[in-house]
């Protein structure tokens, strides 16, 4: 039985407590939050869980085996560092930390302490992403050509991080999970409509030396909510719509073939529009699968699907995107 403590009972905290509490080999024994009104909600919903107003009380507890950190990103490094130094396994909400340097320090500390450090990229545990992984690995859609992601909605504007740091980690994690190619460089452009200069609309392009490209559109100021992830292959194409209640993934037997021509001005293109297939994907709760992976990785001493190394690569792209944004979209080598 792994005893878990959770720091942060805000937007995501209640979901974490519920899912970890539902596992057979895990027990949530403590929740820490500086806000008394949030702790009252914990007491009401989970009477057996100890409520703590100071995170250090949880981090110093000898009864806690693993710590889940669901607080603002600027607090992640110090909290995770203390947890690891106190011999506790750590699960961090995305993004992993505020910089590559912080992420690398945490990974090094976890390795020296022989402890698990994991990042909660929940979408890696969805049935749709798992199905896409299977289709890509089996070459069912041919070779990867592009990925185009749109994650936009109205709100919530964050006071400490821009829209890429808030929304892009989801789809960057999916990008890195679905393919084994190493990104070469990035370009990012965006705009802030607030006085704090934090971008609320941004576009990120991830460039590869191979014949592949990925693009991400993120916004807090869209009148509609869209969560679409397009994967282009040389044989077929995939559309993942996370807002669809059941038919989240569609396979399009569509594409094009270009015939070689001596004259580049006379391009011969044949287009193919075939059937649309809707595969059956698991509709299990992804967060429950993530929670189970974290606990099982502790018990079995294995590398989780959403590993700290994947989390580090997400931060590497985000950090580069910040530099590109401040330099008007300049290409930044990774």
Describe the fold and architecture.
With 334 residues, the protein is an alpha/beta fold. Helix 2 (36-45) links the parallel strand 2 and strand 3. The radius of gyration is 21 Å and the shape is globular. The model has no long low-confidence stretch (mean pLDDT 95). It has helices spanning 13-21, 36-45, 55-59, 76-85, 100-113, 127-137, 163-178, 286-300, 308-326, and strands at 2-7, 26-32, 50-52, 66-69, 89-93, 117-120, 144-154, 185-191, 201-207, 213-219, 221-233, 237-241, 249-259, 268-277, 332-333. It contains 9 helices and 15 strands. A 9-stranded mixed sheet has the order 14-13-12-11-7-10-9-8-15. The chain has a 6-stranded parallel sheet with strand order 3-2-1-4-5-6, sandwiched between helices. Helix 4 runs parallel beside helix 5 (100-113), helix 5 (100-113) packs antiparallel against helix 9 and helix 7 crosses helix 9.
Provide a brief overview of the structure.
The protein is of the alpha/beta class and 334 residues long.
* % residues in beta strands: 25-35%
Percent helix range: 25-40%
* Poorly predicted regions: none
Largest sheet: 9 strands, mixed
Characterize the overall form. globular
Number of helices: 9
Question: Rounded to an integer, what's the Rg over CA atoms?
Answer: 21 Å
Strand order of the largest sheet: 14-13-12-11-7-10-9-8-15
- Which structural class matches the secondary elements? alpha/beta
SSE sequence, one letter per element: EHEHEHEHEHEHEHEEEEEEEHHE
Query: What is the strand tally?
Result: 15
**Mean pLDDT, nearest integer?**
95
Distance between the termini: 41 Å
């Amino acid at each position: 039985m792994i005893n878990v403590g959770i720091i942060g009972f805000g937007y995501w905290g209640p979901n974490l407590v519920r899912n970890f509490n539902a596992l057979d080999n895990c027990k949530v024994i403590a929740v820490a939050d500086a806000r008394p009104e949030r702790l009252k909600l914990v007491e009401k919903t989970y009477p057996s869980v100890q409520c703590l107003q100071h995170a250090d009380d949880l981090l110093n507890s000898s009864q806690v085996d693993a710590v889940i950190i669901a607080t603002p990103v600027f607090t992640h490094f110090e909290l995770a560092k203390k947890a690891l130094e106190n011999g506790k396994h750590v699960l961090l909400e995305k993004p992993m930390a505020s910089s590559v340097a912080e992420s690398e320090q945490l990974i090094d500390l976890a390795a020296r302490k022989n402890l698990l450090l994991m990042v909660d990229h929940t979408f890696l545990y969805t049935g749709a992403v798992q199905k896409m992984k299977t289709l890509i690995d089996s070459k069912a859609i041919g070779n990867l050509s592009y990925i185009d992601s749109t994650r936009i909605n109205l709100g919530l504007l964050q006071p400490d991080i821009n829209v890429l740091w808030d929304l892009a980690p989801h789809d960057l994690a999916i990008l890195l999970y679905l393919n084994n190619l190493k990104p070469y460089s990035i370009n990012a452009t965006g705009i802030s409509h607030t006085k704090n200069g934090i971008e609320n609309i941004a576009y990120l392009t991830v460039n590869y030396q191979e014949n592949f490209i990925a693009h991400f559109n993120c916004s807090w100021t869209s009148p509609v909510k869209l969560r679409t992830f397009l994967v282009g292959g040389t044989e077929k194409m995939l559309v993942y719509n996370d807002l669809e209640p059941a038919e989240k993934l569609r396979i399009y037997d569509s594409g094009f073939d270009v015939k070689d021509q001596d004259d580049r001005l006379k391009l011969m293109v044949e287009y193919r529009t075939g059937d649309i297939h809707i595969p059956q994907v698991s509709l299990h709760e992804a967060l429950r699968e993530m929670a189970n992976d974290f606990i099982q990785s502790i018990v079995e001493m294995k590398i989780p699907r959403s590993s700290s190394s994947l989390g580090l690569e997400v931060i590497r792209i985000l950090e580069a995107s910040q530099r590109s944004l401040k330099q008007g979209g300049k290409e930044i080598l990774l």
